Amino acid sequence: MTAATRPPSGPQPASTPAASDPSGPQPAAAPAASAPSGDDTETRRSVRSGVAGLVGAATSGLFGFLLAVVITRGYGTVGSGAFFAAIGVVTVATAVCTLGAETGLMWALPRRRLGARGDAARVLPVALVPPLLVAVAVAVGGVLAADALAPRLLGGSGADGAAPLTASFAAVPVVVAMTLLLAALRCVRPIRAYVGVQFFLLPVARPVLVGAAALAGGGLLAGMTGWLVPAALALLACLTLVAGPLGVGRGAALRPAPDDWSAFWRFALPRAASAAIDAGNMWVGVLLTSVLAGPADAGVFGAVGRYILAGQLAMQGLRVAVSPQLSRLLGRGDRAAAAAVHRQLTTWGLVLSWPVYLLLAVFGLAFLQLFGPEFTAGAPAMTVLALAMLVNTGVGNVQSLLLMGGRSGLHLAATLAGLLVTVSLGLWLIPAHGATGAALAWALGIATENLTAVGCARAVVGQPLVDAAMLRAGAATVAGVGAAAGIGVLAGGRGIGGLAVALGVLAAGCVGLLTLPRVRHRIRVTMVQVRGRQEAAPAATGRAPEESKGR
Fold it and tell me: Where does residue 466 fall: left (phi above 0), alpha (psi -120 to 50 degrees), or beta otherwise?
């Protein structure tokens, strides 16, 4: 095990999953005579976690789209551009202020023991204190500078931009604390707890509150407040859910050892910059477009970006579902199992995400008509970005392989390469081409980052990251969706009518596939994996490890 992947100090054996019982680690269950192989066990475990993540991501995507409709319909191109820019300020500031600690928690906690007698709680002060200090400093500075920043970021919005910017900066410490505790929640509770907060509470509450503000005639400040309040609710929920498993308040040691600080931040600091880039990629484009081309173009680009990010939710749901599992596998040197999990979930993500992006590429006009006729100018930008996202989702979560393997420096190199391309091309293309120029710059940045990350991950893991199943799934997806899209365009053009025809053809094709015995068998196998029926039987005197229950 290299220094980069060495777990923090503590008596946690490398091959023992972190226990969730407050009294400390439980004895391992005796293996059954017919126990499945390690790779099979890990892939079944990833299936169960992945399904939970996908369900949450689907819900989050639905309500995220509803939020975009509420913002664009309620505030128009100019107002929504200012709204998206204010959200971008919070998103980028939060990503900078977390200093990579959220990924550090997902890397460190699975390698430690939970409970009152464990050493996991010692990581909390290490991970929380520096980011919160930085967040408070940024909040104070941002509130003081809001009057000066508003004309540049939100100029021409027809509203007092200083007020929503002030609210945005003031909320940064709350959003930072929520982000960090969400990462801890994913590691110490079964995934359904994380899904409930991240993929249900936040995305459901935001369109409700923002819509209420818009219906009441509230301006940007009221709408932005509606977007921010759910973060405070999520923070309270995380505090309640995290304290018990970590043994906080029940005798768990909270004073870090000296090497806790060095081990954690040696990993997290390189991630700090890449996290800011990852979270802010779209919002950097929104802010650049707002400054270089005006709020109206920023509103169009923001609306396009909402569709693009919604299509990525399947991959995000899979990533947060299995990141702790990848950390544990790579931490004990089981690279073959980690690569098997990666290949399986990449195939899932490809099958679920590519149809979305292929339809967005062909029927961008139809999707943008749902926001209003003034947003249809973003159709070329939609096509460009949708095609770029085929690359992003096609390579899978290679970034997670790098990060959970402790190679945050390589991940930073890949993200810096992508950011350099995005910003340099954006400064050149946005003044002349507006939202389309921003999309071209971001698309080339996406391709650069992902292809760089693939090369690094393949070298680090030392295992194949692509297999025949992935290639067959990709070819079948392109052929099936491409045929449906072609029929839709011929029958109804690229507007809403053509989209409806394409969706009808796809639905009919899916129903037809369900009649095939091989497809039905594959679905039955997956459902058995989800329910965990093929897990090794626990010993009579012990209980199954908590990790097998969906963590």
Answer: beta
For 121, counting Cβ atoms within 10 Å of its Cβ (0-12 exposed, 13-18 middle, 19+ buried), the class is: buried
The torsion defined by the Cα of 372, 55, 277 and 419, in degrees rounded to 10, comes to: -70
- Whether 9 and 259 have beta carbons less than 8 Å apart is answered as yes
Q: Which two tokens stand for residue 504?
A: 């009808």
Of 103, 172, 107, nearest to 137 by C-alpha is 172
Tell which residue, 360, 377, 381, 364, has the closest CA to residue 439. 381
First to last CA, the chain: 24
Question: Do residues 355 and 414 touch, judged by C-beta distance below 8 A?
Answer: no
Backbone dihedral region for residue 158 (phi beyond 0: left; psi -120 to 50: alpha; all else: beta): left
Cβ atoms of 404 and 106 closer than 8 Å: yes
Residues 6+ apart with CB under 8 A from 395: 346, 450, 451, 453, 454, 465
Low-confidence ranges of the chain (pLDDT < 70): 1-58, 153-161, 275-287, 290-292, 294-295, 310-311, 313-314, 316-318, 320-321, 519-551
How much is the mean pLDDT over the chain?
Answer: 77
pLDDT tens, position by position, 434-481: 888 888 988 898 899 889 988 888 888 888 888 888 899 889 999 999
CA angle (506 as vertex; 502, 509 as ends), nearest 5: 140
Local structure of residue 197 (DSSP, 8 states) = I
Q: Distance between CA 224 and CA 226 in Å, rounded?
A: 5
CA distance 381 to 519: 36
Q: Over the stretch 35-87, which tens digit does the pLDDT of each residue have?
A: 444 455 555 555 555 565 566 666 777 787 788 888 888 877 777 777 887 88
- This prediction's pTM: 0.61
The dihedral over CA atoms of 339, 341, 344, 348, expressed in degrees to the nearest 10, equals -120
Distance CA 247, CA 361 (A): 49
3-state secondary structure of 250: coil
CA–CA distances in Å: residue 299 to residues 73, 86, 160, 380: 11, 12, 17, 15
CA–CA dist 423, 211 (Å, integer) = 33
Q: Which of 186, 142, 223 is nearest to 53 (CA)?
A: 186
Q: Give the alpha-carbon dihedral of 85, 91, 94, 96, to 10 degrees.
A: -80
The H-assigned helical ranges of 4-37 are none
Pairwise CA distance, residues 182 & 10, whole Å = 23
Lookup result for tokens 């693939």: 454
d(CA 317, CA 349): 9
b/e 130-151 (16+ beta carbons within 10 angstroms → b): bbbebbeebbeebbeebeebbe
pLDDT recorded at residue 181: 93
